[in-house]
């Protein structure tokens, strides 16, 4: 139940939230600069833990509703409290409020009362601060708006609305209204036998509150403008890379399905992740991506076995660094890949117990596809497909990354001098 199912930094990067398959949310807080512990810079400690979702049973459909946290999204901080949205992937979204409670016990500063206490008890009233307590409470519950599996939540730049997307529909919510939402995309056909694709991910533009994109299982991305029509079934832009007919196979449609889509912080580009690669698209060019990075091309020859063990259906996420100059995504064997967009250099790193020691330097890993391999290489036949990194997050301003490997959370930062 403690297998991590989502990871998300807040807007400042001082808080990091994880959700797990048991419906629990754990929030980590970054330590402040400590002169007595110079090497503690960037350390994150547990700040709060609470149960977001509980398992339920839908008696009408005779289905169990899992408590697994599918997505977490922070809201921009407006005051001392922190707000985050979470969903269990079924039909319920929670808006949680995190706030500090400080209890200060003191008697009084009235001088007459102070003299009384001094004469009677021999003590002077003093202020006694107590430890801060963190309280989490569900402020709003947005329910019964989705029939299918929720795969995305995205907070709008207007800070008043957000979208939630399932396999066939995208709904627009107002943060203050819980009992209704507005359907902005509906791809459900009149006859379900005619269904050819499903929605896999959706996200609002970081700066334009009227623009959002959603991806499909066919490897296409549609950009929609809510100013054009109330129901955005007709897209404004359509992004698709034509497939080479010579390389088409039985697995082509499966591996081309997009599992994640993310706008760059600048809003100029967007990034998509399919099974084997990460692609960067310019919003002004629809016919092909401007950059393509192969994540684990060495698995192309293993697609048959990956299909048999269902790994081919794994949904990997991707993320940008704060300056949009680098991207990161996960792979198997607890490997994760980082790509520098400026130099086109890439590196493979491993999240393991050995590398989790304080101030340990991560060593690059290489996968060998041939018969003879070097000392530091690992054979593609030796990869552990049960160890996979599906969820990653990058600090919005610094080189600090969070990587979820099964039930372990690894946080790495750039080298401290």
Please provide a written account of the structure.
Belongs to the phosphatase 2A regulatory subunit B family. Keywords: Repeat, WD repeat. GO terms for molecular function: protein phosphatase regulator activity. The radius of gyration is 24 Å and the shape is globular. It has three helices and 33 strands. With 417 residues, the chain is mainly β. It has a domain at 1-103 and 127-144. A four-stranded antiparallel beta sheet has the order 1-2-3-4, with no helix packed on it. The chain has a four-stranded antiparallel beta sheet with strand order 7-8-9-12, with no helix packed on it.
Kindly list the characteristics that best describe this protein:
417 residues, 4-stranded antiparallel β-sheet, globular, mainly beta
Secondary-structure class: mainly beta
Q: Mean pLDDT, as a whole number?
A: 85
Q: How is the main sheet built?
A: 4 strands, antiparallel
Q: Give the low-pLDDT segments.
A: 101-109
Give the terminus-to-terminus CA distance.
Answer: 38 Å
Q: Cα-atom Rg, whole angstroms? A: 24 Å
Count all strands and give the number.
33
Give the quaternary arrangement of the chains: single chain
Shape: globular
Count helical runs: 3
Please report which band the strand proportion falls in: under 5%, 5-15%, 15-25%, 25-35%, 35-45% or over 45%: 35-45%
Q: Give the strand order of the largest sheet, numbering strands 1, 2, ... along the chain.
A: 1-2-3-4
Helix content: under 10%
């Amino acid at each position: 139940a403690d297998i991590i199912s989502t990871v998300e930094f807040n807007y400042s990067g001082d808080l990091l939230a994880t959700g797990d398959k048991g419906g629990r949310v754990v929030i980590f807080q970054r330590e402040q600069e400590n002169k007595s512990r110079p090497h503690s810079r960037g350390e994150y400690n547990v700040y709060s833990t609470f149960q977001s979702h509980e398992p339920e049973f839908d008696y009408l459909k005779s289905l169990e509703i899992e408590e697994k946290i599918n997505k977490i999204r922070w809201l921009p901080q407006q005051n001392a409290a922190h707000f985050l949205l979470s969903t269990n992937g079924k039909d319920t979204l929670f808006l949680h409020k995190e706030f500090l409670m400080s209890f200060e016990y003191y008697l009084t500063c009235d001088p007459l009362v102070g003299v009384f206490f001094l004469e009677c008890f021999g003590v002077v009233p003093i202020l006694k601060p107590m430890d801060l307590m963190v309280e989490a409470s569900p402020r709003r519950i947005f329910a019964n708006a989705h029939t299918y599996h929720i795969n995305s939540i995205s907070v709008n730049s207007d800070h008043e609305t957000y979208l939630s997307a399932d396999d066939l529909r995208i709904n627009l919510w107002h943060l203050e209204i819980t009992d209704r939402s507005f359907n902005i995309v509906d791809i459900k056909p009149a006859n379900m036998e005619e269904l050819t694709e499903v929605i896999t991910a959706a996200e609002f533009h970081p700066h334009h509150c009227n623009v959002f994109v959603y991806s499909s299982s066919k490897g296409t991305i549609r950009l929609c403008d809510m100013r054009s029509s109330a129901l955005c079934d007709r897209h404004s832009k359509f992004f698709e890379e034509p497939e080479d007919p010579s390389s088409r196979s039985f697995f082509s449609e499966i591996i081309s399905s997009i599992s994640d889509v993310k706008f760059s912080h600048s809003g100029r580009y967007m990034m998509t992740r399919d099974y084997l690669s990460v692609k960067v698209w310019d919003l002004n060019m629809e016919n092909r991506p401007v950059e393509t990075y192969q994540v684990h091309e060495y698995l192309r020859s293993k697609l048959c076995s990956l299909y048999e063990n269902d790994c081919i259906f794994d949904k990997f996420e991707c993320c940008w660094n704060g300056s949009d100059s680098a991207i990161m995504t996960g792979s198997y064997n607890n490997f994760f890949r980082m790509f520098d967009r400026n130099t086109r250099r890439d590196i493979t790193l491993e999240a393991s117990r050995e590398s989790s020691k304080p101030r340990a330097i991560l060593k690059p890993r290489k996968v060998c596809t041939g018969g003879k391999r070097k000392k530091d290489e690992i054979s593609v036949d030796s990869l552990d497909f049960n160890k996979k990194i599906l969820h990653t997050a990058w600090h919005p301003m610094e080189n600090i990354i969070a990587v979820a490997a099964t039930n372990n959370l690894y946080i790495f930062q750039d080298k401290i001098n």
